[in-house]
Specification:
Layout lengths: L16 E7 L4 E7 L15 H19 L2 E5 L5 H4 E3 L10 E3 L2 H4 L2 E4 L2 E4 L12 E3 L1 E4 L3 E2 L1 E9 L7 E8 L8 E6 L8 E5 L5 E2 L2 E2 L6 E4 L5 H5 L3 E8 L2 E8 L22 E4 L6 H4 L4 E8 L1 H5 L6 H4 L5 H7 L9 E10 L4 E2 L45 E7 L2 E2 L22 E2 L2 E10 L2 E6 L8 E6 L5 H6 L1
Parallel strand pairs: 2-29, 5-8
Antiparallel strand pairs: 1-2, 3-22, 4-9, 6-7, 7-22, 9-21, 10-23, 11-18, 11-22, 12-13, 12-21, 13-14, 14-17, 15-16, 18-19, 19-20, 24-27, 25-26, 27-28, 28-29
Amino acid sequence: MATFHNPKPPHVTDHDLDVRQRAAPHSSAINIGLSPRPLQSEHQIPRATRDEIAALTLAVSLARLSFAQYTLQDDYSGAKFLNGFSFFTEADPTEGYVDYVDGTSSGLFSQSGGKVKLSVDSSNVASGRGRKSVRLTSKASYNHALIVIDVGHMPANICGVWPAFWSTGPSWPSNGEIDIIEGVNLQSTNKITLHTDPGCTINGKDCQGSQGCSVDSGPYGDKINSAGGATYALEWTSEGMSIWGWAGEGAPSDALGKAPDPSGWGTPTASFPSGSSCNVDTFFKDQQIIFDTTFCGVWAGEVWTTDPQCSSLAPTCQEYVQNNPKAFADAYWTINALKVYTNGDGSTSSGSTSGSTGNTGNTGNMGNTVEESSSRVGAQPPSTIRPPAGVPTTVDAPVANPIPTGRTGGGRTWGGGRGGRGGRGAVRKEKRKLRVRGRHMKHLIIETSDRDDGHGQSVILDSAVPALGEELKG
């Protein structure tokens, strides 16, 4: 069964469960949350039969599935790649000895057999701004996503080369940068790095500015190429950033499937948890995906003299890159697949044009939505959530009684219209149902009724409880 992506969910015993009855003029609510007070007896859940509890357990399972499941948002693979990316042809912001050009007119971009190739000029002595290369930026920007790339080849370990697959928000570093694959010169291990405004510390490291906070881990360069490629995945949620890297055929079978599930992928190659020292939703927004291969610049060029092997080739990085075109024949990317998934917890800017799934605008505000306000200045709402297609928001119970169909107070709803403050919503009579009303932070809200007057109960279930179904059955 799919579960929510809560890293290290707490172990919960009977003594951690608390059932409280909240009295209201026309309704009752049961709040099942974390508390040292024990669950003592069934009579503390008024009018709930065993059949109802079984149906409630099923509703919780379906709700968990609906929130955990990632679905394809944008597919940039093969011929669709240039629909969603544009060439950057300005001067290199990292001061590299590079001339970024339009890849289609220069021949440095090609697509064949479902694979995309991004090359550099390896035939001519460089002049002007530097060696010709390509840099591409996604037209869409993302807030929370699962980004998965299958790289068949990346620029090899070559002196002077600085390749990267990364993302950044507007007004660097105010909205953050995420370096998924990056390195320079003869570096043999991937450097996964976050860059932020001042005020973000993760894993005891200050992430601000050009230095950032890094984890040196994962396949890179020659190790990727000798293995026949690699798969990298970034999962970005309010809980933090997790990045996995698998060389060769080591990626999970679902990594590029219809519904990938990172909860089964094991320990990430790099993990950057959100917390009091750095709330990732504050420091990372509107990330655009970028590919580039630059030369020298503020990293590869600055460390040139500290590398005895590279510095023996030429006095400076620029001199070597300028005069040795054939050295860069292997400085190319081959992209077998690139897919972006969302699980309803994120959004895409209106710039998305990949057209692969039909979701080319903001993914919120479609169909039955769930809303909550955001306290982050300038941020998009983090939880405009809708249940995936095919997941029911109601589950039949065996008793025929009326239930409310809209809100039972302020909050968020599925199937009951947009949430809000005050009001109860319309009441209709039909077969009793248990309704998954929505999710508030890490809680599920279930609605049921067995009263003749149509007023029901709201049951709030903490989604972090790993064995909730078994507790209810007991």
